[in-house]
Fold these 2 entries.
Entry 1:
Amino acid sequence: MLSYALRRIAGFVPTLLVVITASFFVMRLAPGGPFDQEQALPPAVRANLERLYGLDEPLTLQYAHYLRALVHGDFGPSLRQRDFTVGDLIAQGLPLSATLGIAALLLALLVGIPAGIVAALRRDRPADYCLNAFAALALALPSFVTGPLLALVFGLYLRWLPVGGWQPGAPRYLALPALTLALPVAANVARLTRASLLEVLGAPYVRSARARGLGAARVLWGHALRPALTPVVSYLGPAVAFVVTGSLVIETVFGLPGSGRYLVQGAIDRDYPLVMGMIVVYGALTLSLNLVADLLHGWLDPGVRNE
């Protein structure tokens, strides 16, 4: 297990470096710039601004300077929000975005795994049909449709939850955004759990356990569930990527002051340091959670870590 973990950890930094490098050069080589406005700046003013932020240097030298600063934890200044550094902006919005993502993942697992188990144990019964219908609906509707529908029902009609905005220390404002973000993930988790558990329950060693007189609960918890969860753990990597990207839309729909708004606004304004800072943070978080998923996969399936 240790060698498997070290192999996975060894690929973390090179992968993140590839993401940083590709993002840096794509951003800089795309048409337009941070100082492009409807009314063009005088050439002297534009030249002074580019010199101030080092944008007049060769692109490779800018890249080297950026990596050197990044190693020391310096994301640089924002080119548009000049009263703040990129680190300040990330620190303002990331806690809320991280809380939303973690809440959505936990909710998806807490709903999806039990639902998949129930559907597998009650195959071709009403519970199974209801799960399939729920999963199909949750996967078919995009979040920018599901979010307003949930806000309409639970916020405007029933008046149980706020429809948008944020108040520090009031988790009820995260209920609808987390539910909206969790629904597609929960649907996939439930379907994976159901299909995998049905396959495992038909395996020879499970049939042998039943033949020895073991009860249904002991067979499920002691022999079937752990191998059945292997596909679910493998799916956590793509699920994390979905939650990270989906949170950008959810924060906009529900008016949450998370870090996603900075990424979107930075891309519109061509604020290079801000966009790069958000990409580095989101990339590091995604790779870290994928690493955790890989380690869990190796723990559940010894064959994977012995490859």
Entry 2:
Amino acid sequence: MNHSKLKILSYVTALRPYQWVKNLLLFFPAVVSIQPFSTDMFKTLCISFIAFCLVASSGYLFNDLLDLEVDRNHPDKKTRPLAAGQISVLYSKILIPVLLIIAFLIAFLFVNIKFFLILSVYFLLTAIYSLFLKRKMIVDILTLAILYTARIIAGGFAVDLQLSVWLLAFSMFVFLSLAAVKRLAELVENASIGQKNSVGRSYEVTDIAIIEGVSLVSGYISVLVVVLHIFTEATQEYYSRPEILLVICPIIIYWITRMILLTHRGQMHHDPILFSLRDNTSRLSAFLIILIAIIAKVS
């Protein structure tokens, strides 16, 4: 492979395209909505997905520029294109506004103003997180949960769907749990190498038990939200056998508890969402949840 192709590949890698899978959350409100999933809705969400990926990548570049010196001394992050010196710092600084301009033009011209606004809020919160909030304990994981929930809100806004308060509550609690797992994984790794503090974070290895508790409690509250939602009037009317949906709850409890146990044992990738996508047990859990929902609908 010649030098120019390697350079292009390095810039693409710096955009972290493997993280774009998280933006599929934009489709979630349409998938779980009682309204029919139309072709126009799908097209709009695909366009929204592209815009969101561009904004997210600009945020990753911005964060890498801020953490450049720290990443160069990190055992894993030192291989990132910026930290490894594979791409230009100047060109990276230029690329950020270019990505943002393209994304916001797509949002404004091809989606709608509400999506444009939530996309703007998402980027601002991402920037504030990178500048300040990621160094504030507890605030950092709350911010991550909000950023994930913002994707769901954006998906609803893109296709003018009314967002259920139950959906948003579930999202906040389950993603708070996963954000805590992410911090827990870092702390467990630090403990394994005898490092007492997290670099660039406000946590110490002595906080492991507290962070585990936050993750467990948040995850279990998300299950409680599911139970309460099952017994709402809308759910009871939409599903033929809504009581079957209760079977989903032990699956979520098992999945959350297993994720935390694996993290406690040092077997968790730093990003629990990407870990889940590669983990057969997590994929089986997701399949069973979808299957149960279908059975509850058609029975």
